[in-house]
Amino acid sequence: MKKLLALASLLLLTACATVTKVDTGTNTVGERMSISLDSSWNHLDFPGIKPAQVWTMEGVTVDEFLIYAGIREGQAMHPENPSGSKQKDFVFHSSMQAEDIVALFEGVLTRDNSVFKLRKLEPYRFAGKNGFRFEFERIRKIDNVQLRGVGFGAVDGGELFALLYQAPRLAFFPRYQAQVEAIARSASLR
Amino acid sequence: MNRRQLLAAAGASCVAGLLARPAWAQSAANYAVPPRFVRPDIASDEGGLWAMMDREEKSLRRSPLVLRDADLKAYVEGIACRLGADHCADIRVFLVRTPLFNANMAPNGMIQIWTGLLLRMENEAQLAAVIGHEIGHYLQRHSLERLRDIKSKAAFGQVLGLLGLVGAVGQVAVLASAYAYGREHENEADRIGAFLMHQAGYDVAESAKVWENLLQEAQARDGAEPDKSSPLFATHPAPPERRDALEQLAKALPGGTKGSAAYAAHTARFLDEWLQDEVKRGQYAESLVLLTRLIASGTASALASYYRGEAYRLRGGADDQELALADYRTSAADPNPPAQAFRGIGLIARQRGQRAEAAQAFARYLELAPDAPDSAFIKVYISELS
């Protein structure tokens, strides 16, 4: 039943989301971060997703590109979880090390009882700062789809800036991974 | 979608049903197990229900969340067979990787048991208590009764008439899913479960301990009175009442074995994965109760100490870093320490500016786990610290 509620919530959110096209070229996200796009993306805005932005190529039930453009000290990641269940919020602290920040993402991505496996965590120069890059696999509980994902991030001025992309592992992830890696390389902060 | 709803509705008996009040005055020793069920006519409501469960089972078989370990599966199926006796041939067990306490049995004989439940069992008898309860619902065909009860309600009659049988089953399932089993069904499943445990040679007293352990976790999460803050408990009798009643039933059915060693032997190699999933839930208050219990019982205490350290560190309360460090050190001092315990020590020492201890701990971590996913990062840390 919980799965149904989650799916229904997801569909409902998708149904009431507003979708806008994100054009190619340099885009400013949030107050400080800019990224460059070679292709257009779809930006979905619906309740509960802030402070992240969610973009997609194929539709949010297929692939998700989450953009965190300045998560502040003490701020929760996706505080209103869509299933409406009594779940813990995962809160960012600027003192967190890379492992702790990845654990935050793990927490968010397994809040629906999905299975998450970290494949790689490595240093990465993100937006001109010493940051991290990680790869993961996820089995989405709601529909048993096996996903692959990649994330990038860095903390600057006490704020977390990060990108996270996930999509079904066989076709969609390989199709868009290069684009996502290029976007990560293009990230810059003011 | 209807199949999933039907599973939720008719998957005979969520173990949340363990929370209902039993009718202890009844004789627990006089249950006559019905003969094996014959597949019902597909044109009947029961046949429709089985067909939908069959489709759900087909889907579950392909799920990547199902554990494929033949040994563990055979072990749990063996417990189910001991309990189900003549019904053994009709019972099929699926172990599902999900870190919550849950199990259910569908009317076609499919049992799902989640790994969060397996993690919380202290011995074979406790798992037998859960499976016996589920088989109790199955033997009494409670899910069908529930569907028929709902169908008989006049308010739904017109809707069902318009939908035909298949649609009706699906729609009834939707409606049924909104309701838990009634107390009578839960009482009956408890009584039958205890009877089956006793017949199979298990210690019935362990069923009360399952409840007591769950209660402690719920209290840690919801405060002293979980029945007032948790919807699950709020719809059931007061927890102490339930626990006491189970203990009374155990007195009526004394003896039996716990099977602690066998349970530990079959589940030990999964504990790392299950504990990792548990801590990732972010429900640290519950996890700390569970992990403290595991440490006290001596079950994989080095691993449990490491994960309790993780729970403290990730919770990040006032004294949590110190508590985490103490647990990491305990874990690391074990003759067979988990590599991650050294990473934990290194992370805290690095944060505190204790460079030598951090570098040493990270080096030991990589020595034990050279292919760890974060090895590249740890090497950078070591380089910085040196």
Short description:
The complex is a heterodimer of chains A (190) and B (386). With 190 residues, chain A is of the alpha+beta class.
| Number of continuous helical runs of chain B | 20
Please give the order of strands in the largest beta sheet of chain A.
1-4-5-6-12-11-10-9
Give helix and strand order of chain A, one letter per element, not per position: HEEEEEEEEHEEEEHE
Total number of beta strands of chain A: 13
Overall form of chain B: elongated
Give the distance, in angstroms, between the N- and C-terminal Cα atoms of chain B. 57 Å
Most residues in contact, chain pair and counts: A-B, 32 and 31 residues
Spatial extent as radius of gyration of chain B: 24 Å
Mean pLDDT of chain A, as a whole number? 87
Major β-sheet annotation of chain B: 3 strands, mixed
- Under the CATH scheme, which architecture of chain A would be assigned? 3-Layer(aba) Sandwich
Characterization of the model:
- The complex is a heterodimer of chains A (190) and B (386).
- Chain A is an alpha+beta fold and 190 residues long.
- Chain A has a single domain (2-189), classed as Mog1/PsbP, alpha/beta/alpha sandwich (Protein Transport Mog1p, Chain A, 3-Layer(aba) Sandwich).
- Chain A contains three helices and 13 strands.
- In chain A, the strands form three sheets. An eight-stranded antiparallel β-sheet of chain A has the order 1-4-5-6-12-11-10-9, sandwiched between helices.
- In chain B, a hairpin with a 4-residue loop joins strand 2 (103-105) and strand 3 (110-114).
- In chain B, helix 1 crosses helix 2 and helix 5 crosses helix 9 (205-222).
- The chains are: A alpha+beta (190), B mainly alpha (386).
- Chains A and B meet through helix 1, helix 2 and strand 9 of A and helix 1, helix 18 and helix 20 of B.
